[in-house]
Structure formats: structure tokens, C-alpha cells
Amino acid sequence: MSYRVLVLLTAALVCPTFASGACTRDTVPLSLPIQRLDERLQDLTRETGCFIQVDSATLGNLKAPALSGALTIQQALRQSLKGSRLRPRFVKDHWQITSTRRVDDHPIHDSFIQPW
After folding, report:
1. Residue 72 and residue 48: Cα distance in Å, rounded?
2. Residues lower than pLDDT 70 in the chain
3. Measuring CA to CA, which residue among 21, 96, 17, 8 is closest to residue 49?
4. Which residues lie across from 53 on neighbouring strands?
5. For 4, 10, 20, 67, which has the most beta carbons within 10 A of its beta carbon?
6. Contact (CB, 8 A) for 90 and 77
7. pTM here?
8. How far apart are CA 16 and CA 102, in angstroms?
């Protein structure tokens, strides 16, 4: 499975002391418009300096709502992913976006349900 990793290399090179703790609790002032979810993840990477790993196939044509205010990266990700069946997870030193689809969400599953 190919993963598209959205990174901001300059932040990693310029600020090597930007600890993983900063990617979980520091707030950042954000003002982002309604936009495609892939663009939002790139903007969040640029604004926070945190690495975000995502399988680009899971993003499709999803849109992210407008964001405004001082938010942690976790709050920004949760609000951006709300209603998308995607969720943010912090793994070691970066954020990972994963699907919350369950096995029984498969469309074929519904054809096996008996009406009685």
C-alpha cells in the first residue's frame, strides 16, 4: 500500500528540537477556509511543523470545514476530519490518518441480511 507522506522538510531541518510533544499539545493560531482535505493536511503540516502520514486514496474528494482560532494539531485534525470516517492517530513522532471503516461496512454485507 503506498502512503503519501505530507512533510515540511524545512521545519524539520531548521527546528530539529521541535519535539513530538509539541505536535500533541501546543496550540497554533489557525485561519483556514473550506478546502479539499488533502490541501488542509498540507496546510496543517506547514502551519504546525508536524508530519502527517495519509494514504491519498482514502481522501478522495473530501472537503474540510473552515477552521479558526488557537487549536492544537489534534483539535484541528479532528475538526477537519469530522464526518469523513477518517481519524487521526499519533504514532511515535508523527500523525497518521486512518479509516474507521469496519468489516461490516462493506456493501456486500447488506446483501446477506435476511428480511425475517
Report:
1. 9
2. 1-22, 101-116
3. 8
4. 5, 96
5. 67
6. no
7. 0.69
8. 38
